[in-house]
Amino acid sequence: QLRIVESGGGLVQPGGSLRLSCARSEASESSVDLNYYAVGWFRQVPGKEREGLACISNSGRTTYYVDPVKGRFAISRNKAEGTVDLQMNNLNSEDTAVYFCATMRGYCSDFDWRDPIVRPGREQIDFTSWGQGTQVTVSS
Questions:
Q1: pLDDT tens across 59-107, in order?
Q2: Residues 38, 58: Cα–Cα separation, whole Å
Q3: I need a surface site. Which of 15, 37, 105, 126 has the fewest CB within 10 A?
């Protein structure tokens, strides 16, 4: 059973915006309270490895971004709602992908944001939960 879920994906025109949200799964008896974890956002296109985009500490005071999304994406958390959002602005076709959120097993800094590829086999080592993903398509 999925313990966290993403929402907010969809079709958007180039230059447009979307806001993704990551939350605990209401359908799972073992759902995760995101307030206790650092949470990252990742994306994957068919045939490519999953790549990291941004991460936020459990306190919300520290954030990490990869260069391609700096200034365009913003990660935030709502402690009251137990959610972690990714605001995405000025989207382009290269942002088309399936977007995932994941709870970090440790700190955001444990992941190499300079080489933000999730290596095969590391999905369950460096992260404790993954959502099912939400499709983002940027097209006119």
A1: 999 999 999 999 999 999 999 999 999 999 999 999 999 999 999 999 9
A2: 4
A3: 15
